[in-house]
Amino acid sequence: MKTKNIMIVGVGGQGSLLASKLLGRLLMNEGYDVKVSEVHGMSQRGGSVVTYVRCGDKVASPVIDTGEADYIVSFELLEAARWLSYLAPEGQIIANTQQIDPMPVITGASSYPENLVDKMKAAGARVDAFDALKLANNAGSSKAVNIVLMGKLSKYFHLPESAWMKAIEESVPAKFLELNKKAFELGRDAG
After folding, report:
1. Distance between CA 156 and CA 69 in Å, rounded?
2. Domain range for residue 8?
3. What is the tally of structural domains in the chain?
4. pLDDT tens digits, residue range 94-143?
5. Residue 87 is part of a domain; what is its CATH number?
6. What's the CA gap between 180 and 17, in Å, rounded?
């Protein structure tokens, strides 16, 4: 298998690290060589967070360079736009339409950019943007956005649904298992 490059991007506290661990576990369970690199940024202050997940027959490095990401899974709209240059020419963005104001917007130094989905599409990107926060709330918790996004990614990443469920079971505490399975299904079935 050709090496696949997945970037998971968001802001601190959104659950991107759990998503990357779940994805890494899934891919290892399926027999791929997997490298995961967590770049934290200002994660505890709501700053930008990015995780690289690379898989294939043999993966030498966990780092994804500009223009190499097959998938960018974004927990927040501005983060999808921020990392757009990393998307491969045939790559796919999966983005939560939630908007979280960065510090320059909070302080009034700038305003949140408008029409980001349209701008990314105009730049040639394939963008699948949807309200993952609403689906997470429908599943029972706003904290399940990460699993909703993994459900959507599963539609592009052709592995058996049972393998995804096994990875969820191995990654989340038992008391949250049903909620996360529901969040995954809602994401998988979204639009």
Report:
1. 14
2. 4-189
3. 1
4. 999 998 888 888 889 999 999 999 999 999 999 999 999 999 999 999 99
5. 3.40.920.10
6. 15
Report residue 9 CA to chain centroid gap.
6
Distance CA 173, CA 136 (A): 17
CB count in 10 Å sphere of residue 163: 15
b/e per residue 111-132 (b: at least 16 CB within 10 A)? eeeeebbeebeeeebebbbbbb
Query: pTM (2 decimals)?
Result: 0.93
Partners of 53 in the beta sheet? Answer: 6, 36
Contacts of 160 (CB under 8 A, 6+ apart): none
pLDDT digits (tens, 9 = 90+) for 129-185: 999 999 999 999 999 999 999 999 999 988 999 999 999 999 999 999 999 999 999
Burial zone of 81 (CB within 10 Å; 0-12 exposed, 13-18 middle, 19+ buried)? buried
Q: Reduced to 3 states, what is the DSSP secondary structure of residue 143? A: helix
6 token code pair: 């997945």
Quote the strand ranges of 69-162, DSSP E. 69-74, 87-96, 126-130
- For 152, list phi and psi in degrees, rounded to 5: -65, -45
Alpha-carbon distances, residue 3 vs 7, 27, 67, 88 (angstroms): 13, 12, 14, 13
